[in-house]
Amino acid sequence: MSTVRLLKLGQKALTVEIDTQDFVTGLDAVKIASARGDREATRLMAKIMARHQVVLGADDRAKLERRFRFEALRGASSSVLAVANMYDQGDGVPADTKKAAEWYLWAARVGHERAMAHAAYAYGTGRGLERNEATALKWLDGVNEGRQRSTLLEIGWALVLGTEGAKDMPAALRFFERAAQIKPGAIYQVALDLERGTRGVQDREAAGHLIRIAAERGDSGAATHLANALSSSTNVEDQRRAVQLYGVAAQDKTNLAAGQSLSRLLALRPSKDLVSDIFVALEKAAAAGNTEALIGLAYAYSEGLGSDTSPEKAAALLQEASNAGHPEAKYKLSLMYKSGAGVTTDLGKAVELMTSARDSGYPLAAVALSSMTEPATTNSVEEPAKAPGQASEAAVK
Q1: Which residues of the chain have pLDDT under 50?
Q2: Phi first, then psi: what are they for 374, rounded to 5°?
Q3: C-alpha span between 86 and 65 (Å, rounded)
């Protein structure tokens, strides 16, 4: 097969997933073309290594290293990175982290993003270079956010676990905090791992610190976690802080637990000042589309907590949550249609909503539906006729 054809096949290995037949075919093609001495093929092979982070497994890796080195000296940054990877992994050459770091720095200086991330890791952990936190962060300035975040996490965990020799929890926390600026949720997961010891190191103090950082950065899971710890306190300021955190978390409409927690706190009938805070938090969460907050706010209006009593507003909020498919909202709205509270009495609508709540698995709906649909039982012995006034009185009762 001609070298031109081999190169065309090889190009596919850059754009397809590694577990596809096109990748295997393209990789084999570029190996053949490179072995023929084609420089473009050698450079393409280096790009494939950088793109997929794989060891190519060439038959003569020493020759491959020389070809990469030749192209690297002529300015091919992917070839520079390929040589660095070979020294880093000991692939075809003796493993040498110092040499690997030098090659990574070379590629980083000409703007190769992956090499810049490797250089940051080397400076952050001391892998082949003297540790220098400021220099590590400087190299990450030119890297895209996704790779920047993953590199910060890798450095942090290396310092927590000591996989590169040095253990340094304070420095690890600083790298984790920097990652929290990009994606707070990633740091919340780190905090959970540290709290539970799932990666071999348990440090609840460090975990608590990172949970606070993630919560302050707006991660709803971390905010809920922290609020759960504060809500059981008897200190009013702790409770107020818990309400604030639940309020932030519940504005993530998928965080139903935070909306439920606000509603639960309101049902405990806290102090007037705290009721006002909960009501405001529920309003914001309901506006964001949190269905649990809609139900909590409906309860506030029905009981006059934080606002004037308004069955009409309560019914409207329950209708919104019911439209979103919430079983409890359907159950409560059904009872309102049955009694005529906030809406016009409509037994048919009440039965329809209660049936839907039952079919959705709401536990109280089946019993309530039975009371709506089963005919009233009568005594087998016929009662004497009552005077008209007595009959009306009995009906009201």
Answers
A1: 376-397
A2: -75, 135
A3: 8
